[in-house]
């Protein structure tokens, strides 16, 4: 087992990893930018090393600085969390070259599944259902035009290096293709330095349902059931739940088997997620694989009683898995609490938290790194907390989430708490009747603004 883990991340995920490592008796090293010097992960780690100024490219994305921090603290493993370098094959490779265990996928697995066009080809070869589309990257607008005619409108243009909805465009008719093609490439180059594009058939009325998987170093994998992540804004998830209200026992078995097959086909090591689009007829199609821990992993932990961070560490240390699959025993919902103003098109709202009350009670979990007096920097993602509730049924979970949101009081910055309170009164959501298009018709109601 590892003696010391460096956590190459920040915020709530750094705290999440730190807690499990401490419970396992493993020493921890926090790294931080100058903007994060007052963050909780810096305070509670056994050691902390400043790795640069606020800009991510000069700190959390600066591989030499992170490797140097690991070497001077004698860390024998690095946990990348999510985002930043978590799916960077070069970082995984450099860790190995320096004798440091990367707690995550191998460079080859990241390369195979991180590039979306390559991942789709790999899954096709594995016999996993995929959305109809281009066979690989599309080289020109003329080729895009020809491909769209073959696939049939509507189509979705996607950046092969994409993530977080960047470089994605839905195109409903041919006359709009050129404009969306050019803007998608421009956005992808700006966000990822890679303008490679591919195309898929646009699945109408889709659900975004992902399967949590885990694989060991011996080629064996298992799944831990599904999460429904369909409520999104600009392809960014807002709320997740498990089990999905759209799921049937038969569909869960089919999707779980496909996810395990996919993981074992690439001999996947670590914890990861196979993401699917599911149409209204419950046909499912491979969308992408995330070769890392997910933001929404806590709801899976709550319903199967399983510490996924602990499992990541054990798998990286060479522990084999039992091979059995896990199914939800309860119902869990996660609301992402972002420092954003939902009444101003979700504009980021960094600043100082002047008052904070965190909800509690049976079945309520809050993963966060903020506290009263903490200043939210403007340099990073706006998520400041995850509110997770768990109960025996979906109805009980919703009631518990409503109560917890009423108790969650943050003053000094705008947050998405009013949005979640309104969402939990929406008839379609309450009925489990929602798709990835849900937010297109959602209008904020000011009556939910004052939550205390």
TrEMBL record:
What keywords sit in the KW lines? ATP-binding, Biotin, Fatty acid biosynthesis, Fatty acid metabolism, Ligase, Lipid biosynthesis, Lipid metabolism, Magnesium, Metal-binding, Nucleotide-binding
Q: Which InterPro entries match?
A: ACC_Biotin_Carboxylase (IPR051602), Acetyl_CoA_COase_biotin_COase (IPR004549), ATP-grasp (IPR011761), BC-like_N (IPR005481), Biotin_carboxylation_dom (IPR011764), Biotin_COase_C (IPR005482), CPAse_ATP-bd (IPR005479), PreATP-grasp_dom_sf (IPR016185)
Protein's UniProt keywords contain Nucleotide-binding: yes
Q: What is its EC number?
A: 6.3.4.14
Which residues does the UniProt record annotate as the domain Biotin carboxylation?
Answer: 1-444
Q: In which pathway does it act?
A: Lipid metabolism; malonyl-CoA biosynthesis; malonyl-CoA from acetyl-CoA: step 1/1
A Gene Ontology BP annotation from the UniProt entry: malonyl-CoA biosynthetic process
Function, as annotated? This protein is a component of the acetyl coenzyme A carboxylase complex; first, biotin carboxylase catalyzes the carboxylation of the carrier protein and then the transcarboxylase transfers the carboxyl group to form malonyl-CoA.
Q: How does it assemble?
A: Acetyl-CoA carboxylase is a heterohexamer of biotin carboxyl carrier protein, biotin carboxylase and the two subunits of carboxyl transferase in a 2:2 complex.
The name under which this protein is listed is Biotin carboxylase
Task: Please report the organism this UniProt entry assigns to the protein.
Answer: Epilithonimonas lactis
């Amino acid at each position: 087992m590892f003696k010391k883990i460096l956590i190459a991340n920040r915020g709530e995920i750094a705290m999440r990893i730190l807690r499990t490592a401490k419970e396992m008796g493993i020493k921890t090293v926090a790294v931080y930018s100058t903007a994060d010097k007052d963050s909780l992960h810096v305070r509670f780690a056994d050691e902390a090393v400043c790795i640069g100024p606020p800009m991510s490219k000069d700190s959390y994305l600066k591989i030499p600085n992170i490797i140097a921090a690991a070497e001077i603290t004698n860390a024998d493993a690095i946990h990348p969390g999510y985002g930043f370098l978590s799916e960077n094959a070069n970082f995984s490779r450099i860790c190995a070259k320096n004798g440091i265990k990367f707690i995550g996928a191998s460079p080859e697995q990241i390369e195979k599944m991180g590039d979306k066009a390559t991942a789709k080809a790999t899954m096709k070869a594995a016999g996993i259902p995929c959305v109809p589309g281009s066979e690989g990257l599309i080289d020109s607008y003329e080729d895009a035009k020809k491909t769209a005619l073959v696939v049939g409108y509507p189509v979705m243009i996607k950046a092969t290096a994409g993530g977080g909805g960047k470089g994605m465009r839905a195109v409903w008719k041919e006359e709009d293709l050129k404009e969306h093609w050019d803007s998608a490439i421009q956005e992808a180059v700006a966000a990822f330095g890679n303008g490679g594009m591919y195309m898929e058939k646009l699945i109408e009325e889709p659900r975004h349902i992902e399967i949590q998987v885990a694989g060991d170093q011996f080629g064996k994998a298992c799944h831990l059931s599904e999460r429904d992540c369909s409520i999104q804004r600009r392809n960014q998830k807002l709320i997740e739940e498990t089990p999905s209200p759209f799921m049937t026992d038969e569909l869960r078995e089919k999707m779980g088997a496909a996810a395990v097959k996919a993981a074992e086909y690439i001999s996947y090591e670590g914890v990861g997620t196979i993401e699917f689009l599911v149409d209204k007829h419950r046909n499912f199609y491979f969308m992408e694989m995330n070769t890392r821990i997910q933001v929404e992993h806590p709801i899976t932990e709550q319903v199967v009683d399983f510490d996924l961070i602990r499992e990541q560490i054990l798998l990286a240390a060479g522990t084999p898995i039992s091979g059995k699959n896990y199914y939800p025993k309860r119902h869990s919902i996660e609301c992402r609490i972002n420092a954003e103003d939902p009444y101003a098109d979700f504009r980021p709202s960094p600043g100082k938290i002047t008052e904070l009350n965190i909800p509690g009670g049976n079945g309520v979990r809050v993963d966060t790194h903020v506290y009263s007096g903490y200043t939210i920097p403007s340099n990073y993602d706006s998520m400041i907390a995850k509110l997770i509730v768990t109960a025996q049924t979906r109805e009980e979970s919703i009631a518990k989430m409503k109560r917890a949101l009423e108790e969650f009081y943050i003053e000094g910055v705008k947050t998405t708490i009013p949005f979640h309170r309104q969402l939990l009164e929406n008839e379609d959501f309450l009925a489990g009747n929602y798709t990835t298009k849900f937010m297109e018709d959602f209008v904020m109601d000011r009556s939910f603004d004052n939550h205390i």
